[in-house]
Amino acid sequence: MPRRERRSVVALERVGPYSLLRLDRGGLDPGAPGQFFMLEAPQRLLPRALSLCLAPPGELAFLIDPVGPGTEALCALERGASIHVFGPLGNGFRLDVRRPLLVGGGIGMAPLPYLAEALRFPPAVLGFRSAAHAEAAALMPDAEVAIEPTFVTELIDTAHDVLACGPEPMLRAVGVLCPGAQLAWEAPMACGFGACYGCAVEIDGELKRLCVDGPVLELPQAREQVAAA
Amino acid sequence: MRLLNASGCLDALTAPDVARSLDGFVTKTITPLPREGNPPVRIAETAHGMLNAIGLANPGRERFLRETLPRLRELDVPLWVSVGGFCAQDYADTCAALDGIEAIELNLSCPNVDEAADSAAEIVAACRAATPLPLYAKLSAAHPDVAEVARAVAAAGADGLSLINTLRGMALDRRTLLPSLARATGGLSGPGLKPIALAAVHACHAATQLPIVGMGGVMTGRDALELVACGARDVALGTVLFADPEAPSRVRGELARAVEAVGVAQADDVYARAHSAEKTLEIESKVVA
């Protein structure tokens, strides 16, 4: 069940250009891999939606790319500071897969370390735009890594059940390669619990909100979404 | 003073506990036909608020009446239905189809769709003829003289006013300098709106004396109390619900302390107090004259 609690910062670790924000877990449930939390961004009006990266004992850890004022504020938090955390929210990955392959692109690798644990460390492929970004692969030491101009899609063995998270062009390419893939999408969200309709997309002729109907969607739906976008 | 949500800022079916923590739930605006809304990106944060360009996404009147409204009734929360359209008849037809709810809010001011060709007063008059339910006209503070619109809708039969809706604004992407929203512009909400909301509620109370649901940038109990002091009978929470789904109980707690701090027993005791200074000044000036 989602809860909203004020949690304190245990540590903030640099991982290449990203930051791993480790929070005291308190009474929050880490949820299923692919689910997300809304994290209060200091001095900002709206919280930021972040999928859980790792769930060490007593902690929740989030991998953050400082791309705007909210994520920058989160990456500037100091140990001991506290923020409101609300979650877990949305629908995560289905874990009943026979031959899982995890596919991540850039900051889209965020939910994969926790997913890898849940699936007992299946093979994984990660793509990054630079060697500096690829330092984040340290969170998944067994993963195969592609750095542009090599694309992660070149490393995919399509005989696997693919679970992917990354930028939309990557998800689109994965979807074409691997029908039935589980794809974790991203969209701007103000609330994370179905109130704002900011993350709504049309799927199968229906309005779906990624926060309550996703963020993980399977390919037939995802293809509709790409067409609609 | 009742605490409501601003239309479009809560889905009672996905967050029933939040809806039950309010004194009434106001639906997202219902139009005669289903609307998918605007393409993404639909929201953007700004320095003192947020922009949205959802575009009245809703299942349409028939499906709302058949599927959504019965489920909302099960929540046992007083229901306000927000009604939208593109001509007076659109609004009136939906009003005629509604019953067994607390009130109807007529959305006369969405900044994200083309406005109805008919005037606010024409729409209210058509709806007045279509329903005995309480009709609240939701007006925009973007009008040069919102009090004039308030007087017109009062004369046309509105029972109350909802003030204010979002104001059209724009944000640019920090890298590309292109509009952050796919539609380019959206409705600005959040704390930056509060002074505008206070002024609109103040002006419309003075102009009409109609009951007003005040909204616009309410983040705290003190903000709610200030709207009441300007002439709001009830207060609605909007953007704050996105950031804090527990805002209703927090705002109530803060309101109790704010009420105590100004030395009254309850929020209603400061109703329209912001007008008394003017009246005092008027009396003083008459005495001097």
Mind explaining what this structure looks like?
The complex is a heterodimer of chains A (229) and B (289). With 229 residues, chain A is α/β, with parallel strands linked by helices. Helix content of chain A is 17%, strand content 33%. Chain A is built from 5 helices and 14 strands. Chain A has helices spanning 69-75, 112-118, 168-177, 210-213, 219-228; strands at residues 3-15, 18-24, 36-39, 48-51, 59-64, 82-89, 100-105, 124-128, 144-147, 161-165, 182-184, 200-203, 206-209, 216-218. In chain A, the strands form 3 sheets. Chain A has a 6-stranded antiparallel beta sheet, covered by helices on one side. In chain A, strands 9-8-7-10-11-14 form a 6-stranded mixed beta sheet, with helices on both faces. A two-stranded antiparallel ribbon of chain A has the order 12-13. The mean pLDDT of chain A is 92. Chain B is globular and about 55 Å long. In chain B, helix 7 links the parallel strand 11 (212-214) and strand 12. Chain B is α/β, with parallel strands linked by helices. Helix content of chain B is 37%, strand content 17%. In chain B, the strands form 2 sheets. Chain B has an 8-stranded parallel beta sheet with strand order 1-12-11-8-7-6-5-2. A 4-stranded antiparallel beta sheet of chain B has the order 3-4-10-9, with no helix packed on it. The chains are: A alpha/beta (229), B alpha/beta (289). The A-B interface holds A 4, 40, 44-47, 68-70, 84, 86, 187-191, 193-202, 207, 212, 228-229 and B 8-11, 13-15, 18, 28, 36-37, 39-45, 48-50, 52, 54, 57, 59, 174, 190-191, 239, 241-246.
